Amino acid sequence: IVVVKDVEKSYPLGEIMVHAVRGVSFSIQKGEFSALAGPSGSGKTTILNMIGCVDTPSKGEIIIAGQNTSGLKDKELTKLRLFKVGFIFQTFNLVPVLTAYQNVEFPLLLQKNVPKAERERRVNMYLEKVGLKDKMMHRPNELSGGQRQRVAIARALVTEPAIVLADEPTANLDSQTGQEILDLMSSLNENDGTTFIFSTHDHNVISRAHKVLWLVDGRLADPKGRIA
Amino acid sequence: IVVVKDVEKSYPLGEIMVHAVRGVSFSIQKGEFSALAGPSGSGKTTILNMIGCVDTPSKGEIIIAGQNTSGLKDKELTKLRLFKVGFIFQTFNLVPVLTAYQNVEFPLLLQKNVPKAERERRVNMYLEKVGLKDKMMHRPNELSGGQRQRVAIARALVTEPAIVLADEPTANLDSQTGQEILDLMSSLNENDGTTFIFSTHDHNVISRAHKVLWLVDGRLADPKGRIA
Ligand SMILES: Nc1ncnc2c1ncn2[C@@H]1O[C@H](COP(=O)(O)OP(=O)(O)OP(=O)(O)O)[C@@H](O)[C@H]1O
Ligand SMILES: Nc1ncnc2c1ncn2[C@@H]1O[C@H](COP(=O)(O)OP(=O)(O)OP(=O)(O)O)[C@@H](O)[C@H]1O
Ligand SMILES: [Mg+2]
Ligand SMILES: [Mg+2]
Questions:
Q1: Per-residue pLDDT tens over the stretch A123-179
Q2: CA separation (Å) from A72 to A99, A125, B32, B170?
Q3: Residue of minimum CA distance from atom 31 in ligand 2
């Protein structure tokens, strides 16, 4: 369902080029529970951002559900992001002036064809699944770090997308809450066939993945750090 | 060196009061490596913010290095925060327009009495200790999540304060890098007698603490969750 082919990403910084991703190829099957693992700064977020169409590769191609992202116009990319992909950002990216409830409802409003009763049902269901039903009227700055992370998780899941990209979704959670979130994602994966691609340092997540891709300094490597 | 006495913190939210901290008392000895642990939303950040004079208790007292914080004027609180306490925030709070180097140098400039050569020596030393010497010209949005976390860590340590408050300092780090950061903090604790108070979910940090305070729903509890 996701194919990454010879992808590179470089950033100009003053007079030098920073090579964040240096030629990476892999594919993720529909329904897979997969993880990108590796040291801080190795390129995990950069790769997830390109799969999520939030960033574009400097070289190479990304094919999502059969569509080559470099061939798509802005309008088509937006449609892909809104209907097929859910994204849990490493920095959450919640809307500060909206409550937790409104933040989770937001993508359903953007989709335009979801009636009010169905929006209410889903927002309440996912807030409850992440344990935040009693905090739904809080704004992000009235929530703890782990509570904001869970609002970001509920928002990514509420549209019930085919692919969920989760950038360190348990980083700010205690092990009990992290386990509950992992169980929730596992059950969506097993019951609905949702494809998950995690970027993670959490060994609990890594041990439950069907497939683990190890990144070192912008390249794929095996678990012992040998470059592919 | 830190005494927390019958401290409570409540927030008005619409028509109700949210009781984030419900009567907590403990003391931290000079040179202790201590941890606040507990579920997401249990009040750890709220307590650290009050110890760091970033927030004020609704009830109770906080005494830092012999000074009762409720008795201090703004100018004295600022002096305490700037010279005695280093704070690693859960959300980093870096200055977006400054480079990593400038962010780490910032508190030394605020202190006003640190000559240029000494500032350069210390900023370079701490950036190297957190493994970011080659990234010092990057701004926060040109860094990975774990790299930003490490800039926030270097910035808190560069003034060599008596007390370091660290809110989940390893949340965004892989276990290797997290271990290096923990070793760095351990050595500052053993060699310089720096007092550390962590808020953490990381069992590696918890296992290395001299003292662990367990928080459940705004109150202290023992590790089995029994309220004190
Ligand atoms: N805009 C930018 N300009 C220059 N370099 C950048 C930029 N954005 C990212 N980088 C660099 O790209 C590399 C990869 O970053 P990325 O955020 O993908 O890492 P990561 O694996 O997600 O790390 P972490 O585990 O710390 O979140 C880093 O070394 C970072 O410094
Ligand atoms: N401004 C506010 N208004 C209302 N409630 C608040 C406010 N700030 C925090 N809270 C509530 O206070 C409680 C404690 O928050 P705190 O940030 O201290 O938790 P924490 O232990 O640090 O959690 P985490 O591990 O998720 O970071 C939470 O339930 C939160 O919803
Ligand atoms: Mg990242
Ligand atoms: Mg917190």
A1: 999 999 999 999 999 999 999 999 999 999 999 999 999 999 999 999 999 999 999
A2: 33, 34, 57, 39
A3: A143
Q: What's the pLDDT score for residue B14? A: 86
Question: Do the Cβ atoms of B137 and A14 come within 8 Å?
Answer: yes
Closest residue by Cα to residue B41 from B11, B65, B2? B11
What is the CB neighbour count within 10 angstroms for residue A70? 11
Q: What is the DSSP letter of B135?
A: G
State chain A's mean pLDDT as an integer: 94
Q: How far apart are the CA of A33 and the nearest CA of chain B, in angstroms? A: 20
What DSSP letter does each residue of A55-118 carry, written as one string? S--SEEEEEETTEEGGG--HHHHHHHHHHTEEEE-TT----TTS-HHHHHHHHHHHH----HHH
Write down the pLDDT at residue A71.
86
> Which residues, including other chains, have CB under 8 Å from residue B45's CB and lie 6 or more apart?
A144, A145, B90, B167, B199
State which residues of chain B have pLDDT below 70: 223-228
CA–CA separation, A205 vs B137, rounded Å? 33
Would you say the CB of residue B139 lies under 6 angstroms from ligand 1? no
Chain B interface mutation, best of A16, A138, A142, A144, highest count of B Cβ atoms under 10 Å? A144
Structure tokens at A69: 């992202």
Mean of the per-residue pLDDT values of chain B: 94
Q: Which residue has the tokens 């929730």?
A: A184
DSSP A109-151: HHH----HHHHHHHHHHHHHHTT-GGGTT--GGGS-HHHHHHH
